[in-house]
Design a protein that fits this description.
The chain contains 7 helices and no strands. It is mainly alpha-helical and 112 residues long. It has a single domain, classed as Non-ribosomal Peptide Synthetase Peptidyl Carrier Protein, Chain A. The longest helix has 19 residues. It is globular, with a radius of gyration of 13 Å.
C-alpha cells in the first residue's frame, strides 16, 4: 500500500497548513463553499475537486491566484503528508485539466 493516511488525517493536516500560512482564509473559503455547495471546503476538495477549482476561480476571479492557492494550500500539504511531493506539478496540472483523473489518483492512493 502506498500510504496509510486517512482522509480525515489529511483534512486536519491541510486545514492546519492553510490556517498557518493564511490565517482566516480557511474559514472564508469554507463559508463560501458551504453557501455555494452545502459542503465543507475540504470535503469538496476530496469529493468534487472540479467544484473546488470553480469555487476558487469565482472567489479570486484570477486563474493565477486560484492555481497558486490550489498548489500551495491544498495540493502541497496533501503530497507532503503522503510523501509524494515530487508529483506536485503533475498533480496540480491534473487537477486543473482533468479533475476526474485527479480523483482517480486519490482513489489509487486510498485517500477517498
Amino acid at each position: 500500500m502506498i500510504m496509510s493516511t486517512s482522509a480525515e488525517e489529511l483534512k486536519t493536516f491541510i486545514r492546519r497548513h492553510i490556517a498557518s500560512k493564511t490565517p482566516g482564509l480557511f474559514e472564508i473559503l469554507n463559508s463560501f463553499s458551504m453557501k455555494r455547495y452545502g459542503v465543507k471546503i475540504l470535503d469538496l476538495f476530496f469529493t468534487s475537486p472540479e467544484k473546488l477549482v470553480e469555487l476558487l476561480m469565482n472567489y479570486y476571479r484570477d486563474s493565477y491566484t486560484a492555481k497558486f492557492t490550489l498548489q500551495y494550500l491544498f495540493i502541497r500539504p496533501l503530497l507532503v503528508k503522503i510523501k509524494k511531493l515530487d508529483l506536485e506539478e503533475k498533480v496540480v496540472e491534473m487537477l486543473l485539466n482533468d479533475p476526474k483523473e485527479f480523483k482517480k489518483l486519490l482513489e489509487n492512493l486510498n485517500i477517498v
